[in-house]
């Protein structure tokens, strides 16, 4: 019998990073390897239940708790994940914590060295540490390879951005792509340090499937000489190993019951991920756009309450009587909290997703065969919009008027309700354009589903990845 590999995972403290990485860890455990997830207690709470279920099913997966270095950074007790941040200062401290945690990780790895260490790419210090401890490292990148190619092309072609106004043509990529706005200089600095994190890694793992960005993977592998491991959509892959139905919560019941009363493909789902906070003015315009579109919707609102704000002022960001109207007309539902996104997307009544284009949101929408209306929030999300609309055509663009590297500040330029209404109607109105886009989304969903079945590309990649890691340890087989 083969000796299982001992693999340590280190997810970053943000839902968009942690969710796919924990799914990846669970997938590898389901193939008989021994997994330890290094995390903090506040983060563990967000996924402990699924790990307990996997353990009960006989998988070797456990958590090793680290102490979140929040006190020394002045963070309040319990703030251990970007999902709790509403401003750049708190977010900056959580990013600092990702550096401060290094000594704890190093001492765990020294005490009981794993065969392989899989950190989030954001832990850039893991490169030197792994070299020092002589532990093979393979990074997980929570964004797409398409995004990385865009970043590389932008870096290689500064001349493409000389003009003061867009659209900007991006040269050198497999498709002729344009960006509506210029990436800010801060973005280049941020991505530079991230891409350095890939050096020395045994390739890079992404939550995607080969059929989604094949030409870009070739481009990337040729450029960097590094192997890409597409092991996704991870949410679809874990569904195959989870035997029990998802946990039933009140909010799940409420919105799924509401959706049950709606016609197939008739509801637009709106969510801007776990981080983006739109300005009150933008929320107001969005509400007007949704109302004017005439379509039904479920809107997940994560809103920053201003300091000192009185309770009665709270709802002023909505047009007068908006909530009463949508309730009276049974046309809309607001979720002011954490929504069961994958469940909503997979409901047959959901026919469109107005998204901030976070990479997980994109992959989840593809997995559910739901076409998108794109309104990028920050960073790589501007690139994902291009993959959705210009490369594959399974979405309609609202676009953006300015580049933002922060999800918290709200953009200065507000996109009008009319602009949003127009994009929503292009997709959701019955007619040729919407049908064509929907068909493309279903075709890509079909490819995603095939990728995760036995013999499919992601299923095979997972096997190949484990074989590759085992080959690093000839004595263990
Ligand atoms: N998510 C969710 N409910 C919410 C908001 C987000 O389940 O109310 C999940 C979503 O399904 C995705 C992750 O949180 O898996 C967000 O990751 P993404 O890359 O889409 O965006 P980010 O939050 O990193 O901007």
Could you please describe the fold and organization of this structure?
With 477 residues, the protein is α/β, with parallel strands linked by helices. It has 2 domains: 6-242 and 451-472, 3-Layer(aba) Sandwich (Rossmann fold), CATH 3.40.50.2000; 250-449, Glycogen Phosphorylase B (Rossmann fold, 3-Layer(aba) Sandwich), CATH 3.40.50.2000. It is built from 19 helices and 15 strands. The strands form 4 sheets. The chain has a 6-stranded parallel sheet, sandwiched between helices. It has a 4-stranded parallel sheet with strand order 3-2-1-4. The longest helix is centred in the last third of the chain and has 21 residues, at 432-452. Bound molecules: uridine-5'-diphosphate. It holds the Pfam family UDPGT. This is Glycosyltransferase. It is an enzyme of class 2 (transferase). It comes from Vigna mungo.
Major sheet size, sense and barrel closure:
6 strands, parallel
CATH architecture descriptor of the largest domain: 3-Layer(aba) Sandwich
Please give the alpha-carbon distance between the first and last residues.
8 Å
Tell me which ligands are bound.
Answer: uridine-5'-diphosphate
**What's the structural domain tally?**
2
Keywords: Glycosyltransferase, Transferase
Pfam family, one: UDPGT
Family: Belongs to the UDP-glycosyltransferase family.
InterPro entries: UDP_glucos_trans, UDP_glycos_trans_CS
């Amino acid at each position: 019998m083969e000796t299982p590999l001992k693999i340590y995972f280190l997810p970053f403290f943000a839902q968009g990073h942690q969710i796919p990485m924990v799914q990846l860890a669970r997938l590898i455990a389901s193939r008989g390897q021994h997994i330890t997830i290094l995390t903090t207690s506040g983060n563990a709470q967000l996924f402990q239940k699924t790990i307990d279920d996997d353990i009960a099913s006989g998988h070797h997966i456990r958590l090793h708790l680290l102490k979140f270095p929040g006190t020394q950074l002045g963070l309040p007790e319990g703030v251990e994940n970007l999902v709790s941040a509403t401003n750049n200062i708190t977010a900056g401290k959580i990013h600092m914590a990702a550096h401060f945690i290094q000594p704890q990780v190093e001492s765990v790895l020294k005490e009981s060295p794993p065969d392989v260490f899989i950190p989030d790419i954001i832990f850039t210090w893991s490169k030197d540490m792994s070299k020092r401890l002589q532990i093979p490292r393979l990074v997980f990148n929570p964004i797409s390879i398409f995004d990385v190619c865009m970043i590389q092309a932008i870096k290689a072609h500064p001349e493409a951005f000389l003009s003061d106004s867009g659209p900007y043509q991006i040269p050198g990529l497999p498709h002729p792509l344009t960006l509506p706005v210029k990436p800010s200089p801060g973005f280049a600095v941020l991505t530079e340090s991230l891409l350095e994190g890939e050096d020395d890694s045994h390739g890079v793992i992404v939550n995607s499937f080969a059929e989604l960005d094949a030409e870009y993977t070739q481009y990337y592998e040729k450029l960097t000489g590094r192997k890409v491991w597409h092991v996704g959509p991870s949410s679809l892959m874990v569904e195959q190993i989870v035997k029990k139905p998802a946990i039933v919560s009140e909010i799940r019941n409420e919105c799924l019951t509401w959706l049950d009363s709606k016609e197939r493909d008739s509801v637009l789902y709106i969510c801007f991920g776990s981080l983006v906070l739109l300005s009150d003015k933008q929320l107001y315009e969005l509400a007007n756009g949704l109302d004017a579109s005439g379509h039904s919707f479920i809107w997940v609102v994560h809103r920053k309450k201003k300091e000192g704000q009185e309770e009665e002022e709270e709802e002023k960001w909505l047009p007068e009587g908006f909530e009463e109207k949508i309730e009276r007309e049974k046309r809309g539902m607001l979720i002011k909290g954490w929504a069961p996104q994958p469940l909503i997307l997979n409901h047959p009544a959901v026919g469109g997703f107005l998204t901030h284009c976070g990479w997980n949101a994109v992959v989840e929408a593809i997995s559910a065969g739901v076409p998108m209306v794109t309104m990028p929030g920050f960073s790589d999300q501007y690139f994902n919009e291009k993959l959705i609309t210009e490369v594959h055509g399974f979405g309609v663009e609202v676009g953006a008027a300015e580049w933002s590297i922060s999800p918290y500040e709200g953009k200065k330029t507000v996109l009008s309700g009319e602009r949003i209404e127009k994009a929503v109607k292009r997709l959701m109105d019955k007619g040729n354009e919407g049908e064509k886009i929907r068909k493309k989304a279903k075709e890509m969903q079909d490819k995603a589903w095939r990728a995760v079945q036995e013999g499919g590309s992601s299923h095979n990649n997972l096997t190949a990845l484990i074989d590759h890691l085992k080959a690093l340890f000839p004595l263990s087989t």
